[in-house]
Amino acid sequence: MKPRISMITLGVSDLPRSVMFYERGLGFPRMDSPPEVAFFTLNGTWLGLYGRAALATDASVSEESGGFAGFSLAHNVSSEQEVDQVIAQAASAGAVITKPAQKTDWGGYAGYFSDPDGYLWEVAYNPLFWVGPSDEPA
């Protein structure tokens, strides 16, 4: 796994309030996105805001469990095969696979694992949203 964070997604209890805080309060530049999620560009990464319950459901964990802190870290890769490789590497390193890699309803391929402290990582291939070294800001 190449070390980088593609996106930080925060599970929030009130999406409109959080969007207002980040967009208007902090001045984060908001990207076009569906109404159930908000994306903001950061320097070399993105911040995503998503409903806390929906994010827990997506990762196949309980939003009430001590293992869910209300956010996940995303590692985007360039192929479905690479998703499988990174998930396998994480499992070999002792990660718990919370959601095996699979086709997604948004047209990609993704799975989730939790690290030894329970922090969630999504490993995803999205043919419309690739993040790689050539995408770094100048």
TrEMBL record:
Name assigned to this protein: Glyoxalase
UniProt-listed CDD domains: VOC_like
Domain VOC: start-end pairs: 4-126
Xref: PROSITE patterns: VOC
Organism domain of life: Bacteria
Signal peptide (UniProt feature, chain positions): none
InterPro entries recorded: Glyas_Bleomycin-R_OHBP_Dase (IPR029068), Glyas_Fos-R_dOase_dom (IPR004360), VOC_core (IPR037523)
Organism: Oceanisphaera psychrotolerans
Record Pfam families: Glyoxalase
Lineage: Bacteria, Pseudomonadati, Pseudomonadota, Gammaproteobacteria, Aeromonadales
